[in-house]
């Protein structure tokens, strides 16, 4: 029946998009797993030391994955849902799902956003043009990003996003929230995110968050960030 | 009146090996001092200039436009209170009237320990776990970031800082180990008993 197939199509697409191949492969066990770091734990020195990166990835990120699996495992209505589906409507979810789905997504995105110093390439022409258009200059974008990172009281993240109107914005979120979440003050597509929980920098920088924010620019993977922008424009 | 950083009530290495000298140097000398400096800058020349710390906190609590003043004032108060709640050779179960009150309101000291640790463990992100007196009854609460019992009509008796900066140099991601050590080795029950008696 053609009519039935027509009706089913969007539902099928939604259903298929909710599963990444990795999630399908693990369907019988825990749905989420810790992605490996895309570089050795010493690769981001001197901006981020190897000990910090190893603890951050192997213990903190791992805990979000384990706690997310526990939260999903305890609630039959969440079985089979993909990570973005779980995190984008925190107003409908428990705190455990919101915090741990956010923690898993944010950290996975964070590792991919970085590269060894000198290996991250440069922002694409399109991204630079948008940065100039929306911030005035690259230096003003960096100043705005740093101010947002310093202004986030307590734990959280600072982001470069593309807002629903297509403009770039710097925003920050508390704890493990992010701009994909329906309750975010400013929603949008994240291009870049920096972790400003103290665990991201305390062993190396202690109270000097400003120094961490400055040093972090040396490990941004601009090729990845530019790729995300191109994908958002496509 | 300018707000001042109070001296620690013990030497920087007094809480070793449970809380290191290095942690206290940063925590008191940089974080706590930073809140005092920021608070003084924020209130200078405003109608809060010259007001006492608790008066400032109560004047701005719940006002989103004054969040910066609240955060810094409350963090000055919280840290001063946190230092006093610890001592070398502290921890373990209290005695006397306080022990009886804990048994009466929580069932047992062990039940208090369980609830206090649960509050610290489930305070997601930065914040504090508290033992408070609320309408004559002991209660365990937790607050995010700078928030504190004074803003909720409760009397603080004891607090444990669960911002990562409180324990990260010594315990890294092991917040549960820090909490166990806090209760077993550090709590200054004399301070808690005095707060209860004065409430």
Please explain how this structure is put together:
The complex is a heterodimer of chains A (234) and B (199). Chain A has helices at 2-17, 21-25, 50-73, 83-88, 95-112, 125-135, 138-151, 202-205, 209-216, 222-233; strands at 156-162, 168-174, 189-195. With 234 residues, chain A is mostly helical. A 3-stranded antiparallel beta sheet of chain A has the order 2-1-3, with helices on both faces. By secondary structure, chain B is mainly alpha-helical. Chain B is 50% helix and 12% strand. In chain B, strand 1 (127-134) and strand 2 form a beta hairpin. The two termini of chain B are 26 Å apart. At the A-B interface, helix 3 of A face helix 1 of B.
Q: Using the CA coordinates, give the radius of gyration of chain B.
A: 16 Å
Largest interface, counted with CB-CB under 8 A?
A-B, 20 and 20 residues
Percent of residues in beta strands of chain B: 5-15%
How far is it from the N-terminal to the C-terminal residue of chain A, by CA? 34 Å
Task: Bin the helical content of chain A.
Answer: 40-55%
Mean pLDDT of chain A: 90
Give the biggest beta sheet of chain A. 3 strands, antiparallel
**Classification by helices and strands of chain A:** mainly alpha
* Percent of residues in helices of chain B: 40-55%
Number of strands of chain B: 3
- Largest sheet of chain B, order of strands side by side? 2-1-3
What are the secondary-structure elements of chain A, in order, as H or E?
Answer: HHHHHHHEEEHHH
Oligomer: heterodimer
Spans of chain B of at least 5 consecutive residues whose pLDDT stays below 50 are none
The helix tally of chain A amounts to 10
């Amino acid at each position: 029946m053609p009519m039935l197939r027509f009706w089913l199509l969007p539902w099928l697409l939604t259903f298929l998009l909710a599963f990444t191949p990795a999630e399908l492969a693990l369907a019988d066990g825990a749905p989420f797993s810790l992605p490996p770091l895309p570089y050795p734990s010493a690769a981001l020195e001197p901006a981020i030391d190897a000990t910090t990166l190893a603890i951050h990835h192997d213990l903190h990120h791992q805990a979000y994955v384990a706690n997310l699996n526990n939260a999903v495992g305890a609630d039959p209505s969440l079985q089979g849902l993909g990570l973005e589906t779980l995190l984008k409507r925190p107003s409908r979810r428990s705190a455990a799902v919101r915090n741990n789905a956010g923690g898993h997504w944010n950290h996975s995105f964070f590792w991919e956003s970085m590269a060894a110093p000198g290996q991250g390439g440069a922002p694409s022409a399109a991204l630079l043009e948008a940065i100039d258009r929306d911030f005035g200059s690259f230096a003003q974008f960096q100043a705005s990003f740093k101010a947002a990172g310093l202004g986030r009281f307590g734990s959280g993240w600072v982001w470069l996003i593309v807002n629903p109107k297509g403009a770039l914005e710097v925003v920050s979120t508390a704890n493990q929230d992010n701009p994909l979440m329906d309750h975010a003050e400013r929603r949008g597509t994240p291009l870049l995110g920096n972790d400003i929980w103290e665990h991201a920098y305390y062993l190396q920088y202690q109270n000097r968050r400003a120094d961490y924010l400055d040093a972090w620019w040396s490990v941004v993977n601009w090729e990845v960030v530019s790729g995300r922008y191109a994908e958002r424009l496509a | 009146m300018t707000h001042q950083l109070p001296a620690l009530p013990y030497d920087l290495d007094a809480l070793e090996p449970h809380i290191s000298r290095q942690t206290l140097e940063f925590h008191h000398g940089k974080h706590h001092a930073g809140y005092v400096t920021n608070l003084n800058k924020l209130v200078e020349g405003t109608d809060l200039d010259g007001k006492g710390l608790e008066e400032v906190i109560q004047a701005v609590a719940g006002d989103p436009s004054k969040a910066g003043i609240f955060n810094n004032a409350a963090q000055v108060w919280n840290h001063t209170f946190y230092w006093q709640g610890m001592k070398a050779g502290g921890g373990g179960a209290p005695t006397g009237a306080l022990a009886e009150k804990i048994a009466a309101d929580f069932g047992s000291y062990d039940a208090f320990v369980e609830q206090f640790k649960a509050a610290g463990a489930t305070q997601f992100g930065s914040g504090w776990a508290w033992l408070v007196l609320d309408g004559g009854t002991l209660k365990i609460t937790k607050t995010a970031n700078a928030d504190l019992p004074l803003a909720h009509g409760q009397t603080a008796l004891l607090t444990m800082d669960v911002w990562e900066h409180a324990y990260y140099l010594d315990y890294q991601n092991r917040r549960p180990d820090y909490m166990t050590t806090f209760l077993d080795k550090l709590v200054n029950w004399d301070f808690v008993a005095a707060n209860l008696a004065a409430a």
